[in-house]
Amino acid sequence: MMKKLVSILLMVLLVVVLAACTSDDKSKDDKASANKENATRDVDTVMGKVTVPANPQRVVVDWNLGEVMAVGIEPIGTSKTILDYGALLTPFVTEKTQDIGADGLVSIEKILALKPDLIITYDTEAVEKFSKIAPTVVYDTSKYKTVQEKVIAMGELLNRQKEAQEFNDNLEKKVAAAKARIDQVIPKDATISIIDVGTTKSTIVVGETGERGGDPLYQLLKMNPPENVQKDIIDKNEPRIDVSWEKIADYAGDYIIKISNPAIKQKSLPAIWNTLDAVKNDRVIEVDVRSYFMSDAYASMLQVEDLADKIEKLKK
User: Fold this and answer.
1) What pLDDT, in 10s, does the model give residues 154-182?
2) Could you tell me if 299 and 214 are in contact, meaning their C-beta atoms sit under 8 angstroms apart?
3) Where are the alpha helices (DSSP H) in 71-126?
4) Quick check: pTM over 0.85?
5) In CATH, what number does 187-315 get?
6) Does CATH number 3.30.450.20 belong to domain 41-166?
């Protein structure tokens, strides 16, 4: 009987000890989890050092959606302008990403309701008001020369350096594959220009820039710009210039990427359009401004493949 009682007491004691250990382990796990969630780091920005979450989970970005997505984060909020003019990008955006208002008119109330732990903006004048909601950093793409550098910088900002490198490696493969396809259609010495015929009364001719397909075409695919595009736009670090219809032939390449907006009813183009060699020889690639207005890192990757698809159709 005594042995049985001792055994029972030992079992009870063991249960108590195990329970205490489990409780202690849980306490340690909870504390470690809390420490991880509350961990911060300092990042250098154009506005100086900013203390941000070490691993932000609820990011709002008012412009550079593509760079944030490139490092594997889907933000909880972004500009309606990006959602409206990033048609190639938006299929990869879920309901998680909420509209915070049009560019320049973003709603502080909407951002506040989303409870972000980090806000990324291009607007230095918005930092003060955004900082009242969450840590805010200015991401200035003008500081980076290439699409890849923009991704690396965002990876540093969001503490996702590995994801940034993986994206760039994947981008390099996709660009090489797309270039090989394009080279089967367009001679290597041919020139190609980007002309937006649907935004102004004249035309917009695009250089090597993060908008309207400039970076994908000239920086990533390394296609040849016409001499005047190189001299008057790219060499002067201009993103684009307005060109009158009377002078459009001076900037037209052997091939033309023609940007228009099907959502807007447009009048027929001036007769001079039909005199361009690219038009007369069916060397025009038609694209929608809603798919090509943005040329962020993620959109650029998608545009590279889209251009290859469209250019391949020219030989059919």
Assistant:
1) 999 999 999 999 999 999 999 999 999 99
2) no
3) 80-84, 108-114
4) yes
5) 3.40.50.1980
6) no
